[in-house]
Design goal:
By secondary structure, the protein is mainly α. The protein is built from four helices and no strands. 56% of the residues lie in helices and 0% in strands. The longest helix is centred in the middle third of the chain and has 21 residues.
């Protein structure tokens, strides 16, 4: 439970997967709740929290501008040369 959450934004992590985002969200919820695995009666709220944190993380990474690039380009979703080829 003491592992640190890795940086998910470029350039620290060039390609972020949904698994990376989910793992970071799970680690965060574990740390905040103090539980490595929730008891059966807390499982639903625990999973809802992980989902909410994963969604917020995805939205954050998609919206960040890193060194002048848009969130989509910074997250690997865009490529300037590909755009130039399509418009040119």
């Amino acid at each position: 439970m003491c592992r640190s959450i890795k940086t998910l934004r470029p350039p620290a992590t060039p390609e972020v997967t949904e698994d990376d985002i989910r793992a970071a969200a799970l680690q965060y919820v574990r740390k905040i709740s103090g539980f490595r695995a929730p008891a059966a009666h807390n499982r639903e709220v625990f999973e809802q929290a992980v989902d909410a944190v994963a969604t917020a993380t995805h939205d954050l990474l998609a919206g960040l501008q890193v060194r002048g690039r848009s969130g989509a380009a910074a997250a690997g979703g865009g490529n300037g040369s590909a755009r130039s080829a399509q418009t040119g």
